[in-house]
Design goal:
Elements: E1 4-9, H1 11-16, E2 17-27, H2 31-38, E3 42-43, E4 48-52, E5 55-59, E6 62-63, E7 81-84, H3 87-99, E8 103-112, E9 115-125, H4 128-148
Antiparallel strand pairs: 1-8, 2-7, 2-9, 3-6, 4-5, 5-7, 8-9
């Protein structure tokens, strides 16, 4: 994947959810926000996506105020930001999330050709025993790798 620079990953998403589909969405940002993203002053750990009135929004995406942007002050760091998706993708996400009790989660934030993109996933919440199995699998892989050397 040339031209991509990963800014932030949501590591908990893969632990808490079984990701069924992924989508690439653009973000509607202000000038200082994209500068803060390029400076990697972003957190997507608590972020989630809601769809209302045929538009998708990401909530709790924390983008720190850019310190050199004094002319634009008072921007909310966790304000809802609009996602740029095709209309049929939004309809499909809305239908799937309502019918099958699936969640729409941000997976990673990256720059692609100098544009901020958010990879979102349609995921089903894992049960506790699934999480334990994931931990066991990681532990076994780690031990095998350690014994190899």
């Amino acid at each position: 994947m040339s031209g991509e620079l990963v800014i932030a990953r949501n590591k908990k998403a893969f632990f808490n959810y079984e990701i069924l589909e992924t989508y690439e969405a653009g973000l509607v940002l202000n000038g200082p926000e994209i500068k803060a993203i390029r400076a990697k002053e972003v957190s997507i750990g608590e972020a989630f996506i809601l769809i209302r009135h045929g538009e998708a929004f990401v909530h709790n995406l924390h983008i720190k105020n850019y310190e050199y942007a004094h002319h634009i002050s008072g921007l909310d760091e966790v304000r809802p930001r609009k996602l740029l998706l095709h209309k049929n993708e939004i309809k499909r996400l809305e239908k799937d999330s309502q019918q099958d009790q699936l969640a729409i989660i941000p997976l990673r934030l990256y720059l692609k050709n100098n544009l901020a993109k958010l990879e979102i996933g349609l995921g089903r919440g894992k049960k506790l025993y699934d999480k334990r199995e994931t931990i066991k699998k990681r532990d076994l892989d780690r031990r095998q790798k350690h014994n190899k050397y």
